[in-house]
Design brief:
- The chain has 351 residues and is mainly alpha-helical.
- It contains 13 helices and no strands.
- Helix 4 crosses helix 9.
């Protein structure tokens, strides 16, 4: 565990130093030097894909892979083209540039008002309580149906992600003193796949993939077909394909298990399904659409079913459940004894 922590510090020191370099280079390059700007900044993106491979834990490695190999590298690709959340006129101060690059956050526009239709959120203490209850449920894992346990995993992943991103947002908010947009918007209340993936689930991801993948592919498709009516379909497919590749990278990072394509297949399936949903909505008048009372449960059921089929098998083969449990126990042991214990020395009583 000590070696993992040292690598974690080294990785993040390199990340911060690289971002300081990008910030400094950008400030001193003239606005007209577009090619030179790209040449100076773009090589950092592949470095960010490689750095998390020095980590193997799920709490440090997977989180770093998501924050840096995925989101931060895509932000830098946009920044190299003088666009995206890191680009501003005048340039962002370094104190704001670093957290915006490192964390999955986006400043909230000062004129943004909460939607009157937005449901009240379950507060953070309630989510932590539910998560603790789920952990207790795992004690009876051998006496419960596997599908019920996998349903618990769905809830577990959602709450863990929201808690983690909320904590990251709180740290960023403390440093930047600015209001941030929420990372989730009650995904279990989604009424369609468009609603789930575009407006409710892990919102920082679509906001980064939209300018880096979706818009360029949509423009290219519109030019090739001579019409923009159906250009969204290949753009959606390309976006989900890239998301699938990045998920494969995150899972490989902590599991070191060769990709089987199931994780990629999950996102390709949802890309095809969402494209079909767009096509049906454009072909069928709105008065014939299925009501929210039916489309909502159907959407959530489809996401859960496809997760059972394609998302969880590689996730569990990589040892996510075991690693997550033993690493948590090692952290508790450290709090008790102030002694670093390797997770490999511990046995999870729930699994």
């Amino acid at each position: 565990m000590e070696g993992e922590i040292k690598n974690f510090i080294l990785v993040w020191t390199t990340v911060v130093a690289s971002l300081c370099y990008c910030h400094t280079v950008s400030k001193h390059l003239p606005k007209t030097a577009t090619a030179l700007r790209r040449l100076a900044i773009l090589p950092i993106a592949p470095l960010f894909w490689l750095l998390p491979l020095n980590l193997t834990s799920i709490h440090l490695g997977a989180v770093t892979s998501f924050f840096i190999a995925w989101l931060a590298s895509f932000k830098l690709i946009l920044f190299a083209s003088a666009s995206g959340p890191l680009h501003s006129t005048p340039p962002l101060p370094l104190s704001l540039f670093l957290p915006l690059a490192c964390f999955p956050i986006k400043p909230q526009h000062p004129n943004t008002k909460p939607s009157p239709q937005q449901p009240s959120h379950i507060n953070l203490p309630t989510k932590i309580t539910i998560l603790a209850l789920l952990i207790q449920v795992y004690t009876y894992k051998n006496h419960l149906h596997p599908k019920l346990i996998w349903c618990c995993y769905c809830i577990h992943i959602y709450f863990m992600l929201e808690i983690l991103l909320s904590l990251a947002g709180a740290v960023a908010r403390a440093f930047t003193r600015i209001e941030l947009e929420p990372q989730f918007n009650e995904p279990y209340l989604a009424t369609s796949l468009q609603d789930f993936w575009g407006r409710r689930w892990n919102l920082m991801v679509p906001k980064i993939l939209h300018p880096t993948v979706y818009l360029p592919v949509r423009r290219a498709a519109a030019r090739l077909t001579g019409s923009g009516r159906w250009a969204a379909v290949p753009a959606v497919l390309a976006t989900f394909l890239v998301s699938g590749v990045m998920h494969e990278l995150v899972v490989y990072n902590f599991g070191r298990v060769g990709p089987t394509g199931e994780m990629l297949g999950f996102f390709v399936l949802h890309g095809v399904s969402l494209s079909a949903e767009i096509a049906v909505k454009r072909a069928v008048p709105e008065r014939f659409w299925v009501g929210r009372a039916v489309s909502g449960p159907a959407t959530v059921a489809y996401v859960v079913w496809s997760s059972f089929w394609l998302f969880f098998p590689p996730f569990l083969r990589a040892g996510a459940d075991v690693k997550g449990c033993t690493e948590s126990l090692a952290f508790v042991e450290f709090l008790k004894t102030r002694r670093l214990v390797s997770p490999a020395e511990l046995t999870c009583p729930f699994l």
